[in-house]
């Protein structure tokens, strides 16, 4: 009995030693680098234990069509900008000029661009935050916007619908995506946490699929995917992925966390829906309707084969 008690005290002390005050991804957590992994993020910020957290697994057959989810208008996304790209210790982040904004998509007002950052796996392995029917993509881009009336992101996060994030998946391609050269080339200069470098001239438009391929998307209410996990985000997750070569995807894993470890698996596990609804855009509904229409015409013309 006494030996069992000593073991329990030792384990409790061990667990206390291995818990840090800072938050981290699961790939970072060891006793040599104590921090709060995703399952303990509420220790870093209580809001991370909320009931409307992100990311989520989107189950397509359970989504509801919503005709209000019309095509977005991407204003000034074509404008080129420079600026800095930074390794912030958890991701790479680029602050954006506020002249780019989005309209439509059932957003109540224009939302202006604030910054973008990415989440990835290990050497091109699974790394997206959101998943579709359980499928995890290699990487995910988040373009963060806030309501036009707010002057900073902190104020926008106090507004229950103050922030709108556009999420884009990446897929592995056999060809190099030259549109990403400014970002890929800059990564070698920001391997260490806290470093930044000038970003070659780039536009938001060149980083995402063409507008005609952005009519199919999902919508739900959620949160930031890092502490403080504030639940004031309107999420839009687009279906069509962005192509990058395996070599381009692997470059992100050369970055380092603040302890020098490879910056890999920088994603939060999916969170419970807790009764929230996920909607899909009218584009997806039109696509389905068109498929049915073609099938009906084929059958009427006797082009379908008998069983």
UniProtKB/TrEMBL annotation:
Residues 1-20 form the signal peptide. Its cofactor is Zn(2+). This is Carbonic anhydrase. GO terms for molecular function: carbonate dehydratase activity; zinc ion binding. Its EC number is 4.2.1.1. It comes from the Eukaryota. Its main location: membrane. The keyword Membrane applies. Residues 21-282 form the Alpha-carbonic anhydrase domain. It catalyses: hydrogencarbonate + H(+) = CO2 + H2O. It comes from Esox lucius. Reversible hydration of carbon dioxide. Catalyzes the reversible hydration of carbon dioxide into bicarbonate and protons and thus is essential to maintaining intracellular and extracellular pH. May stimulate the sodium/bicarbonate transporter activity of SLC4A4 that acts in pH homeostasis. It is essential for acid overload removal from the retina and retina epithelium, and acid release in the choriocapillaris in the choroid. GO terms for cellular component: plasma membrane; side of membrane. Keywords: Cell membrane, Disulfide bond, Glycoprotein, GPI-anchor, Lipoprotein, Lyase, Membrane, Metal-binding, Signal, Transmembrane, Transmembrane helix, Zinc. Interacts with SLC4A4. It is a lipid-anchor; GPI-anchor. The keyword Membrane applies. The chain crosses the membrane at residues 277-303. It holds the Pfam family Carb_anhydrase. Belongs to the alpha-carbonic anhydrase family. It is found in: Cell membrane.
């Amino acid at each position: 009995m006494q030996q069992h008690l000593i073991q329990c005290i030792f384990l409790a002390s061990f667990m206390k030693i291995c818990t840090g005050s800072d938050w981290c991804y699961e790939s970072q957590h060891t006793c040599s680098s104590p921090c709060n992994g995703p399952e303990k993020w509420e220790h870093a910020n209580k809001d991370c234990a909320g009931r409307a957290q992100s990311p989520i697994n989107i189950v397509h057959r359970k989504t509801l069509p919503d005709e209000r989810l019309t095509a977005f208008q991407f204003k000034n996304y074509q404008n080129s900008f420079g600026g800095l790209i930074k390794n912030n210790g958890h991701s790479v982040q680029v602050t954006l000029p506020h002249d780019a904004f989005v309209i439509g998509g059932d957003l109540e007002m224009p939302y202006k661009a604030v910054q973008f950052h990415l989440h990835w796996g290990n050497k091109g392995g699974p790394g997206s935050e959101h998943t579709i029917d359980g499928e995890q993509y290699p990487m995910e881009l988040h373009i963060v916007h806030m309501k036009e009336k707010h002057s900073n992101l902190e104020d926008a996060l106090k507004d229950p619908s103050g922030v709108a994030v556009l999420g884009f998946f990446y897929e592995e391609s056999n060809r190099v995506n030259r549109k990403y050269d400014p970002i890929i080339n800059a990564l070698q200069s920001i391997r260490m946490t806290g470093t930044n470098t000038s970003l070659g001239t780039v536009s938001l438009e060149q980083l995402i699929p063409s507008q005609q391929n952005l009519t199919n998307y999902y919508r739900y209410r959620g949160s930031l995917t890092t502490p403080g996990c504030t639940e004031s985000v309107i999420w839009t997750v687009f279906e069509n992925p962005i192509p990058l070569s395996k070599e381009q995807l692997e470059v992100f894993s050369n970055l380092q966390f603040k302890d020098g470890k490879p910056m890999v698996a920088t994603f939060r596990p999916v969170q419970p829906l807790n009764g929230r609804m996920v909607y899909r855009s009218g584009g997806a509904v039109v696509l389905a309707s068109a498929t049915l229409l073609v099938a009906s015409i084929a059958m009427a013309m006797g082009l379908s084969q008998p069983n």
